[in-house]
Design brief:
alpha/beta; Rossmann fold; 3 domains; seven-stranded parallel beta sheet
Length: 450
């Protein structure tokens, strides 16, 4: 549904009143649109150490205008504060900061940029995972990057975002794929996130269709976020198998027909659901998206056994049982990708959602617990944790709660189903095997949770 406050503050009258009254002024977010040719449409600025030099080597694939800033010489046009163009994307390699005195480089690099950013600029800091460093001082300095990046992300305006990526040994080859996502409008509603990339042998062959040749199963696909996921996976070249409950069969069949996929009407909580599903997937799948989920909200004092049991059955038990069946049968092929739709409620908790939050936290735990063993087959498993997303469900939330949900983030607005879908599509890519056992929040850097 439409966010009338966003419409108002971005009108000429609204801009004058907001400025005079000191009200929040969230900007309209840029999202990926069909026909776009480059991840970044505007100047990209790169600075820092050896990883920055590597980014500079493929920077021309991301945008037509690549600049460098800082003491390290790079193969790019120098950017001069106050004279250079406004920036659309920024990458800073902080992986070589190893003692406290070097942290001042963060201020020296970013401070001159902050008044020279375009609308919806996307920035990424690169580091090394603290737990991989033997020197405790160096580890503490790399851990300091998290506090800096999360805080700076909250200071940005006009729809700009900032992420921290810890790059493991051998993961440098996956930098391009990660930056194609985080420097582009595909990550419009993601900010303040910290992710770890490890080595991964798989690579995307065609960036215009990064999922070409891969078969994806999406549960809960008939409408809402599930339908958006299906459309985005199809856009990126995946062959689709869409699943939903029998009651949604007409919508499911129509979507599958439009996207050139196949549909399966199935109750995922049925006793024989795993057997039925594997029987209909004889050719196997490469991407498994557990999107199906329900809410039955009550405070615990008023929670009925039926409300509790149904939410845990659909949201947690079904993904556990079905994923294990698909793994054990070999239906989910080696080098596959499993994406679990969690929620920030599973991270921060939410009043009246003890059942829902427990189920979504369980999905994050499932990703963490299974990551190592699935990695032996080249399979990654991650959770996507949406925040406030504009859907039919959130449209029925009382006005005051809906407005609070929208504004309680650094970006000051709700996300769109497309934002969740873009994250799922990225995690489904071959190269995104560089991440596993992690939770990616799509929440505009909500103030709820870590």
């Amino acid at each position: 549904m439409s966010d009338r406050y966003i419409d108002f503050v971005n009108s000429s009258l609204g801009q004058r009143l907001v400025g005079a009254l000191g009200l929040p002024s969230p900007g309209r977010l840029e999202r990926w649109q069909a026909g776009r040719l480059r991840p970044v449409e505007g100047p990209l600025l790169i600075g820092g150490g050896a990883l920055a030099a590597q980014v500079a080597r493929f920077g021309g694939k991301l945008t037509d205008a690549v600049f460098s800033y800082g003491p390290e010489p790079l193969h790019a046009t120098p950017w001069i504060p106050g004279q250079g163009p406004k920036l659309k994307a920024v990458v800073f390699d902080a992986s070589e900061l190893l003692h406290t005195g070097q942290l001042k480089q963060l201020r020296e690099f970013f401070q001159p940029l902050l008044r020279n950013l375009e609308h919806c600029t996307h920035m990424v800091i690169l580091g090394r995972a603290p737990e991989t460093l033997s020197d405790p001082f160096a580890a503490s300095v790399q851990r300091a990057l998290e506090g800096f990046s999360r805080s700076l992300a909250k200071e940005l305006r006009n729809g700009s975002t900032l992420q921290l990526l810890y790059i493991g040994e051998g993961a440098e080859d996956q930098l391009e794929g990660a930056l194609r996502f985080f420097l582009s409008p595909k990550s419009a509603f993601i900010s303040g996130q910290v992710l770890r990339l490890k080595a991964c042998a798989n690579q995307v062959q065609d960036w215009t269709r990064p999922l070409a040749g891969r078969k994806a199963l999406v549960t809960g696909a008939a409408r809402g976020i599930g339908a958006a996921i299906a459309e985005t996976l199809a856009r990126d070249g995946a062959e689709l198998i869409l699943l939903d409950v029998p009651a949604a069969k007409s919508d499911l069949d129509a979507l599958a027909a439009r996207l050139g996929g196949h549909s399966i009407a199935l109750d995922i909580c049925a006793a024989d659901a795993a057997e039925q599903l594997t029987g209909q997937l004889a050719d196997g799948i490469d991407i498994l998206v557990h999107n199906a989920g329900i809410t039955r909200d009550k405070t615990l004092a008023n929670m009925t056994p039926e409300f509790w049991d149904s939410v845990l059955a659909v949201n947690l038990n079904a993904p556990q049982v079905l994923t294990k069946a698909l793994l054990d049968s070999g239906t989910l092929r080696d080098n596959g990708r499993v994406i679990l739709l969690a929620s920030i409620s599973g991270i921060a908790g939410n009043r009246g959602q003890t059942n829902y939050a427990a189920s979504k936290a369980g999905l994050i735990g499932l990703a963490q617990a299974w990551a190592a063993s699935l990695g032996e087959r080249g399979i990654s498993i991650n959770a996507v944790a949406p925040g406030f997303i504009e859907t039919q469900m959130t449209a029925h939330i009382p006005f005051a709660l809906r407005e609070a949900g929208r504004r309680m983030s650094s970006l000051g607005q709700g996300g769109q189903p497309q934002d969740v879908a873009e994250a799922v599509a990225w995690l489904g890519q071959p190269g995104s095997g560089a991440l596993s056992g992690q939770a990616l929040r799509v929440c505009g850097q909500s103030i709820l949770g870590a």
